[in-house]
User: Which sequence fits this backbone?
């Protein structure tokens, strides 16, 4: 494979999220990929296929100063900001990404694990297992973890990923599940799929967006210590989300790429 150009990401809130896409030409598309659903396929048979991979780092809760934070009983005048769900959407021009053969996530609502956090948990469990006096138990545990994919008994360490969208506009939705209330963890160079270039130049725009309803704000004990009624806290949170934080006004991260 050969790297095709370099796409510099725009990460508008790197404290919460950083994203990058990687592009490599492939001499032949995966065998499972069907011909692209386009009448121009015969004109593009000699054009390269490009494999698209994703690196995305969900960084969990971030402290954020807010107006009148100290008056609301917050010692540092800050609240904790995170989000439980977000959507990555690709907008394609003069190329397609066939739905069959796409990677990351499942269309039947299965879960994709976080690579770094879960791998670390598995290592920790294996280290604990080696301290067992019974060699038979030790062997069973090692065999269990060795054949185990990057997943965990605790579903809080999973990010749920769903695939949807069309050949021209594929979508991946990431959502925290289980005990994990916000997105946190990292995927490193996971393959999203392969682009079939229908004509040159072709281009791609990737955007990661979060809706207001998916934002989580943690106030700690601030409003409680001030004895502010819950309904007023809800109003303050709504005003902050819509008028101050404004995450839904622009993509948190964006990548633009063109192949000439």
Assistant:
């Amino acid at each position: 494979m050969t790297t095709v150009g370099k796409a510099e990401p725009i990460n508008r809130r790197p404290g919460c999220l950083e994203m990058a896409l990687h592009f490599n030409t492939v001499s032949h598309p995966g065998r499972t990929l069907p011909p692209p659903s386009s009448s121009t396929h015969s004109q593009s048979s000699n054009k390269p296929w490009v494999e698209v991979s994703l690196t995305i780092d969900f960084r969990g809760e971030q402290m954020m100063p807010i107006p009148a934070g100290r008056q609301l009983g917050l010692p540092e005048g800050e609240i904790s900001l995170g989000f439980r769900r977000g959507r990555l959407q690709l907008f394609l021009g003069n190329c397609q990404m066939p739905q069959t053969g796409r990677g990351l996530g499942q269309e039947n609502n299965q879960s994709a694990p976080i690579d770094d956090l879960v791998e670390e948990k598995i290592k920790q469990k294996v280290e604990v297992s080696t301290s067992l006096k019974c060699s038979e138990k030790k062997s069973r545990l090692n065999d269990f973890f060795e054949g185990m994919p990057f997943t965990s008994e605790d579903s809080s360490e999973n990010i749920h990923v769903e695939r949807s969208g069309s050949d021209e506009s594929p979508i991946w939705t990431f959502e925290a599940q289980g005990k994990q209330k916000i997105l946190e963890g990292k995927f490193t160079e996971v393959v999203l799929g392969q682009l079939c270039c229908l004509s040159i130049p072709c281009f791609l725009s990737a955007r990661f967006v979060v809706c207001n309803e998916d934002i989580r704000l943690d106030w700690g004990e601030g409003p409680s210590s001030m004895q502010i009624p819950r309904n007023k806290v809800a109003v303050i949170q709504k005003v902050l989300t819509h008028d101050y934080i404004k995450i839904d006004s622009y993509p948190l991260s964006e990548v633009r790429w063109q192949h000439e």
DSSP finds four helices and 15 strands in the chain. The first strand starts at residue 2 and ends at 3. The longest helix spans residues 230-245. The chain has a mean pLDDT of 74.
